[in-house]
Amino acid sequence: MFAQLLVIQQNYLSTEMLVWAVGILLLLGAIALYFYQRKVGRELTEELSQLAKIQKHNIEFEFVLKAMKLCTWHIDVKDQIIIYDNDYRERSDCFVPTEGTTLDDLVNVMADSDKARIRKSLEDICTGRKEEYHEISQVRIAHTDDYYWTEAYATVAARNDDGLPKYIVGTSMRIDERKAMETALMEARNKAEESDRLKSAFIANMSHEIRTPLNAIIGFTSVLPDVEGAEERNELINLIQENNQKLLRIVDDVINISKIESGKEKLVMTTFDLNDILQAIISEYASKAQDGVKVSTMFASGSQQITTDMSRLTEVINHLMSNALKFTSQGSVILGYDSTAGKRIRIWVQDTGKGIAPEYQERVFERFFKVDEFIPGAGLGLSICRTMAYSMGGDVGVESTLGEGSKFWFEIPIQ
Questions:
Q1: Alpha carbon of 179 to those of 85, 116, 141: distances in Å?
Q2: Closest-CA residue to 335 (of 378, 284, 394)
């Protein structure tokens, strides 16, 4: 009996110890599970935080792309295919590769002047010869002959086991406005340089043109007291007066150009009979013509009322008449006008002088340009004619055959 009780007691103790052992194991497992759950919770919280940061970065990245009007793309080096990932360029006529667009297809839409350079740059980065790609080029707008400017950057994003590029990422943006600004700045610089050149040429030419009559005036004036004969004295006086007139004409021409180009001299519009003005001018120049030169008129009507700046009109005709008589030694000089076409009239001076070669017919209106350096004059008259005609809303031109004569005309509004 006692032995049975002892066995029962031992079994009970064994069971109790087993229970305690299981309880301890369960407690340790619960503690381990608790700490594991805390660790997983921390990791999950950290991952969620990182995900939030990535989402935030994606939003910021997208915002930057939109603000910069960029598109992003990547190149699969193995297949030589380019794929656009995001495109925030504003213009709808930009090049966008379709599925399977190769690098050769991309190069083919470039301007001919850029193709070889772009192909070489793409080969360099795809083969690993260069780490980065930066090119500015012109891309053809689909179904047109027009091009737009683009600037692209790219870099190697991943390499294969051999260290060669296998994945390239890049971005592109349109730079039409920047290129237009660069062109405008370059044109402004060229104009400034041309202006400086013209100023230097102007000073040099004016120095020469003013010095010539001035030297004559000073020289003839210095010998005038020593001349005793009346005839010789009168001849010197006439030469002095002639050079005085040349000097005054040069100064007047320079002042006229300055006033017109500065915009300080405004048009003074009046209504008058054109025939009366032309007749008065022809009467003045008839006495200045060389022997053997006939000066006449050819009017389209007996009377022609026009409204314009009479002073500038007279100035232009005076220059054209003076120029025609200067280059005509035989034949005729005719001043006339054609019948009005609409609200414009063409006035012309036709001569039988030397004529002008075709390559010089446009250049004769440039400042200081002279077809014949042996003919006196500063080369400003025709330039003034063009400037004044433009200021009156008109135009000037010449029709000429070398050796047969010239016909200078200017056309202006008459109302």
A1: 26, 21, 17
A2: 284
Chain centroid, CA 160 distance in Å: 47
For helices 381-391 and 230-262, the axis angle rounded to 10 degrees is: 40
- Quote the CA–CA distance of 109 and 327 in Å, as a whole number: 57
- Check pLDDT > 60 for residue 54: no
Q: Helix, strand or coil for residue 125?
A: helix
Helix (H, G, I), strand (E, B) or coil at 169: strand
The pair of three-digit structure tokens given for residue 367, joined into one six-digit string: 């400042």
DSSP notation for 209-264: HHHHHHHHHHHHHHHGGG---HHHHHHHHHHHHHHHHHHHHHHHHHHHHHHHHHT-
Specify the higher pLDDT residue, 317 or 261: 317
Q: Which of 168, 170, 115 is nearest to 137 (CA)?
A: 115
Here the tokens at position 22 are 């299981």
Q: Output 115-122 pairs: Cβ under 8 A, ≥24 positions apart.
A: 122/75
Q: What is the pLDDT of residue 243?
A: 81
The predicted-structure confidence for 263-280, as pLDDT tens digits, reads as follows 666 778 889 999 999 999
Of the candidates 94, 88, 91, the residue with the CA atom closest to the CA atom of residue 142: 94
> How many CA atoms, within 13 angstroms, populate the side-chain half-sphere of residue 267?
17
